[in-house]
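Students often ask why we bother encoding 3D structure as a string. The short answer is that it lets us treat folding as translation between two languages. Here is a chain of 663 residues written in the first language.
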Amino acid sequence: MHVHLLTFMFCCLKMYYSAPVFDGEFTGRVVINTTNSEGFIDRFITKHAGYTFLKRFQIGRHEYFVFEINDTQRTRKISKEIEDFDIKNLKLDSEVDFVNQEKRYRRVPKTDDTEWSNLWHLNDDVSPSMKVNEAWNAGYTGSGITIAILDDGLQTDHTDLDANVDTVNDYDYQSTDDNPIPDVGDSHGTKVAGLIAAEKDNNECTVGIAYESTIIGVRILGTSGLTDSEEAQALNHHLSGVDIYSNSWGPTDGYGFSEPGTITKSALLDGITSGRGGKGVIYTWASGNGETTDNCNGDGYVNSIYTIGVTSVEEGQNAWYSEVCAASLAATYGGSSNNRYLTSTTTSSGCTSDGVQGTSFSTPIASGIIALALHANSALTWRDIQHMIVLTSSRNGFTDSYSSWGTNGAGKEYSQVLGFGLMDAEAMVTQAASWTNVPTQQTCTTSTFTGSGSTSGSSYTTDIRSISASDCSSITYLEHVTIDISFSYTEYRGSSEFYLVSPSGTESHLMHYRYDDSIYYASAGSLSWTFMSVHFWRESPIGQWTLKFKSYRGFSVDIDQCISAPCENNGTCTNNAYSYNCQCTDGYSGTNCQTIITTTSAQETSTEPLTTDDNGISTTLVVVVVAGGTVAVIVIGVIVIAVVKSFSAGATVGAAGVAVVWQ
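And here it is in the second language, the structure alphabet:
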């Protein structure tokens, strides 16, 4: 009896025992995009010895070729710490448009435990309810909606899942085969799947929120780490047939600023522009479990405008593990050791209530609710879904343990941790049934400027910039707001804090004190990063914007005046902490080397004068391309490069013929 049980368990699980990857180590793989793909493989191998062709793949209109460096044909071994010496030669090849020696990064499930309890999150045994039963009673089950689960694998023959699993289009990017069965001991993806699509009324385990939806297992997590091209392919996997990509993973919590690679960013963009027949696929993402001492704005996946950041609540407040997160749109129940866990499917056709908790499990619940909304109205775009979540989610009496709730300029309550509150499945399907698509996105970009300022003590330093109607005439109301900030610090990077305040007085905590980041980055350095907030949703961008910044306990945070490259025409910049000097090349002069020197009667004539604002700070127009984007840009002044991007559409959003009333 015991022998048969063990045999069954091992036959249905993969067994890999490779050593864990060092985060950010170089691999032997090189990804190339060429200007001439016809016959490229043969030409490349002829010109460049020591490479073996592995595969080709496509992201949008771009075709990529993957080659492996063949160590046996080289006199020098591949280094895991530095880029291979031959990459410079590849960049000089006239046929090579893009080349990247890939690194592997650790990507981890956003969860804390492996125990679960019961179905309280669905059976109205907890208040407030997410009203899933009410959505079911209205006839919405997720039928016809396909959800790709990107995780550590999926037991495709699980008896409570198998009727809803697409085994034709699944894939494993860890072992490069079409079988996403997980490694021994990996059950995270199977638990995620149960929350979405476990079968109903079959006397098995549990029931998923979208219990008639179709799920596709896409295995991406494992000890081998993940490269940029693998992430990109996974996020576009079976793009023609997927409605929602559910992602309960990301960079390590607690420290660091980590963003998608070049190809992955292209894949996200292609997903929202090409997916679902041009309506855009939905990317849900776990906001992270770093607790309120961490901030999700350091996670470039969650703070992408193309993803929906999902966080967790427990009874009465944000879950104990939820992060401060200006990018989180809303929350669902995620289980908690403080009160109750969840119940879901697990590997070996099991069912567990043994204590799993985390934003990992809030995210598939959100994916399931979105699937119900798409069942109600398949014409919804990726932006419609985001607007509906903002509109229908609410505070519902939950406490924010980090900060007080606020009310933005559009009358919508928001939290620094919980976004716009608990998701409501009944309200989502009701709105979806008669929803009018939001207008086309418009993009407004303000000028870039060189700011000034540093922190002293623990008091705030502020910089103020005003946006006029003429600056952003195409923007009726905001969706996301992003701001590019470049700063330097003398020590303890995690002590740097940034808060953005809109003309309506809405304050969003873009970054607050992170202890672990201070420890990991204790020495001096600099950083350029794009921060994103959803807190200004439906506000007007017009008026005075304020960036407040300070350093926790007074550690010095200065603006690196040279990060924004203020010296024009190849001038050399010298940073002076509070200002900069430009050493101009021959033929140019001026503070920023902006003036062309011409000789007329032994006099120098300036033909291109420098434009300055009221404070004498130089400003330069920056072209920001946000494809498909609702991003307006407001630049605030502590930043060497400060670009604020705000999303806008043109008309009232909501059910046809009905004005929206914020709840």
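Translate back mentally: The mean pLDDT is 83. Keep this in mind for the problem set.
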